[in-house]
Design a protein that fits this description.
Layout lengths: L6 H9 L3 E7 L2 E6 H17 L7 E5 L4 H13 L2 E5 L5 H11 L3 E4 L13 E3 L3 H5 L17 E6 L9 E5 H15 L3 H7 L3 E4 L6 H13 L3 E4 L5 H10 L4 E4 L1 H17 L3 H10 L5 H7 L1 H7 L5 E4 L6 H9 L3 E6 L9 E2 L12 E2 L3 E5 L4 E6 L20 E9 L5 E6 L4 E2 L5 E2 L1 H9 L4 E11 L2 E10 L6 H9 L10 E4 L15 H12 L13 H10 L20 H15 L14 H10 L18 H21 L2 E3 L12 E4 L6 H8 L2 H4 L2 E6 H8 L7 H18 L1 E4 L5 H13 L3 E4 L16 H10 L3 E7 L1 H6 L11 E4 L11 H14 L1
Parallel strand pairs: 1-10, 3-4, 3-5, 5-6, 9-10, 9-11, 11-12, 12-13, 23-24, 25-31, 26-29, 26-30, 27-28, 27-29
Antiparallel strand pairs: 1-2, 7-8, 13-14, 14-15, 16-17, 17-18, 18-19, 20-21, 22-23, 30-31
Helix pairs in contact: 1-2, 2-3, 6-8, 10-11, 18-19, 24-25, 26-27, 27-29
Amino acid sequence: MRTTVLSYLDDFTARGETIAFAQRRGLRTTRWSCKQISITAYQFARELEARGITKCDRVLLWAENSPEWIASFFGCLLRGAIVVPLDIQSDPSLVCRIQQQVGASLAICDAVTRSLVDLHIPLIDLSGLDPLLAGHAADTYPVDRIEQDDDVEIVFTSGTTADPKGVRITHGNLLANLVPLEQKIKPYLKWERVVHPVRFLNLVPLSHVFGQFMGIFVPQLLGGEVFLQGSLNPSQIIETIKRERISVVVAVPRTLEVLRETIERNYQDAGDAGRIKTEIAAAANQHFIRRWWRFRRLHRRFGCKFWAFVSGGATLSDETETFWRRLGFAVIQGYGMTETAAIISVNHPFRGTRRSIGKTLPGQEVKLSKDGEILVRGENVSPGYWNESPGHEMAGGWFHTGDVGELDDQGNLYFKGRHKEVIVTSAGVNIYPQDIELVLNRQPEIKASAVIEIESAHGPEPLAVLILRGQGAKPEPVINRANESLAPHQQVRRWFIWTDEDFPLTATQKIRKQLVAERVRAKLAGSVSDHSSDQTRPLAEIVARISGERSSQLEPSARLGIDLKLDSLGRVELLSALEDRYQIEIDEASFTDATTIENIEKIIRAGSPAAASYPYPRWPYRWPATWARTVLLYLIVFPAIRIMGWPKVRGKQQLRDLRGPVVFVCNHVTMTDHALILFALPLRLRAKTAIAQDGEILRGWRHPPKQTGWLNKTLNLLKYFSVALIFNVFSMPQKSGFRQSFGFAGELVDRGYNLIIFPEGERTKHGAMNDFKAGAGLLIKELGAPVVPIRIHGLWRLKQAHRHFAWPAEVSLNIGEAIRYSSGSEPEQIARDLAARVHSL
């Protein structure tokens, strides 16, 4: 019988070395076992005890999703401290106002948030947690006087007012929802063995109760693993799903919509926009298996193990839900609020009713008021707001959610919209903005919409705030087309074009309609100039943060390289930040020194252009390719090297005690450099080694231009498959696609592979070494693996003389001492230091 949430920490302890959480950090993936979570939580509780933190003390937890976040959360609970979780994107002024309310004794931050605001209280930095906890015992921490009615956390649900409100969540509130879910899950555990382990990709902040449910508690009920990812870039999400063999994605509706747009755009780029619509329509009445087979290519893109989305935090549009279901994926929706410990209802993954947000969980009661407001009663309802007496919405009896809904005869709940957003016309007719937004968002010219109330000469009426796709879209024909699908009282007669790239959003990607309404009404009243919002738009803030310029001083004509002084690494950082913020994919080739802020705005509005596609083959790393590679190396490549000039290897003792994964860096002379380095390495390092090669060359071989003749095309393909099979090559592009290349390199290192890279980026044209690229320094910094410098001597003289055979030892390889660079090193510094080390060999 569970009496507190800490019983789930006991479950972690019982599962021992089983992997519980994984997270991509830079280019590497870190994995935490259940035992590691428990031990860290026990040590963290002892650290809190040493700092004098006692029961009911408040602790701010302001950090990105991570295993350390979860361990520190449980550590606070072990001490009886009340956690105040804050979203990573919270404004520092909001954090200060929250601190004024709760009077926290300690703040837990990370590398991003620790310097954003000085709260004048002690601070623990999660990025340096290991050395902090090293001196504490790892055995079970004794729990004293933790009761079911004790507060677990204070979750602040609003940041738009001067006085945000913090919802108190108790152990009993959380258990009231978790225990019924646990009972519903038990009958399905026998099937879990077939797909074990169930892996969840959590894209929701742990600072929200929904994120905690699906990121900490529910996966453990299934004995599952959770992959924590901060990036919302659709391509990276799909890549993670396949690479990590994800079963279930936990996300907010906006993420599902962006992924859907990505799929549709891919079909459109391939000239199949009409086919995807036809096939989705044809799948309407088909069985799940038939749907899966119809879209089997798409399922292969996501990976064979992925089968479901869990959507929460906002309402999923009917069109998006239908899209994913007809593709053969399950879509699980829930409904709830922070005040109800996240969950009120949830639909069944296999027996869900279309557009329904599910049936009420056991232990709760739901009814509708006379005006359709959803009322809830149960043990899951919060005891009230921090430092406030319970109001009418929490004072016993029924909790007033402020949402309008419907209930059918089977008990399925349907969400209609926020009660305070309902527009009541002068004729007494209720207009639900969400109904109009659903129709507007179906129009291909509309990227997003928000319907707000506006006063007209005839009383309140809806005003559609629109973000249009592209520069040439005209709103009037779009509105007229949408009105054809709306009832007369719902039809849009007034609209407003939102000029920013996106609406202001909450952490769970809901549109902050209050801010939208305030700005629109102010502009319509003439109190705000047309240019005032441009200086505070998210794009300007992101550019200012990375370039170091003030957002108010940025001009649309400012060029990235010439005016803002952003080098290639700075442009990649900016591009990644924009992709995460706007959830689009941007081709790196479109970001040059001369690209202006105005150009970037157009790129964002236009969506995501097709990115350059470079080959990253995975088949050479699987059987039987691994066996064939060994045979070819020892029967053909190495004998040929001995016959053609048996090179001398100096410095082999530097590798004697070295264990992988290791990064080898070498000067680049000819195409035979790959084979010479492999020849010089001992078997234990040679057996698992991959080589970075010019991505443009590999792409040209793998995907020759259409005008290439069949003979040359065949020869190019033979070249590609030969080098991929024998040398395990992967693309390292010179112009664009760096992030994908770096990500693949990180994946290989995680799998235990050593890497060979040529930091010059091209073969020497004059015999002397070229400068090492800063990108190579960035790659080495992010990989965090030891680096071994190697230099090839004598090969340039052979090349100049057009000789293919050398005397023994005429060609030599000098191996230097391994070095490991700290995470604080600058990429340019790493590149310069490595160049000096290679040059000195």
